[in-house]
Amino acid sequence: xxxxxxxxxxxxxxxxxxxxxxxxxxxxxxxxxxxxxxxxxxxxxxxxxxxxxxxxxxxxxxxxxxxxxxxxxxxxxxxxxxxxxxxxxxxxxxxxxxxxxxxxxxxxxxxxxxxxxxxxxxxxxxxxxxxxxxxxxxxxxxxxxxxxxxxxxxxxxxxxxxxxxxxxxxxxxxxxxxxxxxxxxxxxxxxxxxxxxxxxxxxxxxxxxxxxxxxxxxxxxxxxxxxxxxxxxxxxxxxxxxxxxxxxxxxxxxxxxxxxxxxxxxxxxxxxx
Amino acid sequence: xxxxxxxxxxxxxxxxxxxxxxxxxxxxxxxxxxxxxxxxxxxxxxxxxxxxxxxxxxxxxxxxxxxxxxxxxxxxxxxxxxxxxxxxxxxxxxxxxxxxxxxxxxxxxxxxxxxxxxxxxxxxxxxxxxxxxxxxxxxxxxxxxxxxxxxxxxxxxxxxxxxxxxxxxxxxxxxxxxxxxxxxxxxxxxxxxxxxxxxxxxxxxxxxxxxxxxxxxxxxxxxxxxxxxxxxxxx
Lengths: 273, 235
Prior knowledge:
By secondary structure, chain A is of the alpha/beta class. Chain A is built from eleven helices and ten strands. In chain A, α8 links the parallel β7 (190-194) and β8. The radius of gyration of chain A is 19 Å and the shape is globular. Chain B is built from seven helices and no strands. Chain B has helices at residues 7-40, 43-74, 78-106, 117-142, 146-154, 156-176, 181-213. In chain B, α1 (7-40) packs parallel to α3, α3 (78-106) packs antiparallel against α7 (181-213) and α4 packs parallel to α7 (181-213).
């Protein structure tokens, strides 16, 4: 990747305590992202801890989803999109020429705002990933992966008797948990969630949050959310984006009680003009 | 600090702070009257102080109710959250100050003879000092002025020093003539109440600091009330 000289951007940077406890899983250095002429992310550097939840917050259009999607190269599908700088997962450049993007997306899974199960059975939704990646050895193994993934996604008890019914027939919250089961069926290391609860009712939201809490024992989770309360509840690290700039990143406990930057303070207290 | 996008949020916070200002004003009045009642042995005024304490308790209840509702409705964050928490804490300090003023006033009834002059001036000085500390700290709070708050915090030792000297004085009177014991004991409790009020003022000062900075005061306050270790027979 070509290094590009961009405007130097100040981010409030005391090393968050969570990074003293958890090694960084994803590291970004001097990342700039463009959509054609639009400079969507400006000189961003951040470390995202493993086995913890990191939340990206900020007003619409601040670049948080853009950056999230660059972590598994989802932006590759947008022709005008250009990414410069370094993004590494486990110290490996994910924009390296010889990198297999399909393999990357298995390691870095994604859950979207609207639950989007395939128009297939519940079983097939979960089995799809392991099948295309060839990670299951036979029917029994596949059954095992499907059950394990559904259990991890806290959905097993609700669907075990109807694995062959269509995934689209589930409730919204169940569909979202099915999508999470589908993402973890391929044994990812990082799970990216782009507003995973914004289409769900409070009870379904609580179940997803409970699930995120459990999943963080094993995965590096990054969540984009418009709900400040949700960010405060589920994450250990919070990053605040504004106008393409990572304004402040820190331990969630600090960001929501004593943020350093005035822009963060204004945003989280509902004062953004 | 700029306004919230939702105007009603600002109105809620303003209403809360207005109630607290009213409560603080009431406590100042109560304290002034209690000191006057005790030093002049004015039983009518003392009764009035005792009755008026209910108003302060009622204000505290209203503040708590409003604060809880605000948290439930707005889910305050960062400085807003500290603002609400500090309001609750300050209200609780003021409520205690009200109780101490009331207790000071009550002692008026127990004192039958005129106070010796030296004691009455000591009491008046200490009362004036406590009142001024309370007044300053409430002003500092109303203005979010942590520097002014810390001045109050540091000058608490003056009250402590004055309390120590009155304590010694009272001991002397009691040793001179056991008939003074009843009077002196009541005065001792009265001045102790004033010393406590000073401590509550420093609590409020610490809360102003927390509100502004998001951290607690790190500097240690010099503690000058040493009467708990005093023995009259050693003097």
